[in-house]
Target: HAD family hydrolase
Amino acid sequence: MNFPIQAITLDLDDTLWPFAPIGARIDQVLHDWMLQHSPATAAMFPQAAMRELRERAYVDNPHLHHDLSALRRLTLQHALQESGADPALLEPAYEAFYAARNQVEYYPDALDALQRIAARVPVAALSNGNADLERIGVAHLFAFQLGAREHGAAKPVASIFHAACERLGVAPAHVLHVGDHVEMDVAGAMSAGLRGCWINREAARWNHPSLQPDLQFDTLTGLADWLDANPAASATRSA
Model:
């Protein structure tokens, strides 16, 4: 399949790096931080209890589903309040979380493939998560980063895809969105008029009832190779 691509929007978590190890590290770092700075909070909310508190905050605050940072602060605030801790610990606790959240371990193929892709077409990060590309150290490879928090709504709503296309200055039909999630990434982008590329690292079955991805690869290297093999598809970068 060959079609003109003038820009790419790229998901982050579970596309460039797996999120599960980050989540486990966050739980451990926060627990260790509470042990040091607020032992009563650590005792009342060990890791499993803190996860339950976070899940409850998510269920109770659907208006914040696009803002994972706000939900994390709310979780920490509740834990500190319920354990009688100093409320001034909220921001330092959040900073401990955020430092751990931005310690990522790329999939083996991802960083090299990202560099190859970014050399061909502008790439914008488009994420529902709260990773910070400056902290992580790869912001220079992206035209910009647009998160659900900044936009005010999360994928798969069409408006976040359209906002990215507008900032890129490229019509949706010439933007390829790349991600791991069938609905939030690929089907959401295609429903918004973009092209969709599924990075299917787990050999999962495509299960959308009516849409099929324009492209599908088991690594990001597959997309980089496709761009190399189809130079006309990305020859419009300077247009």
In short: The first strand starts at residue 7 and ends at 10.
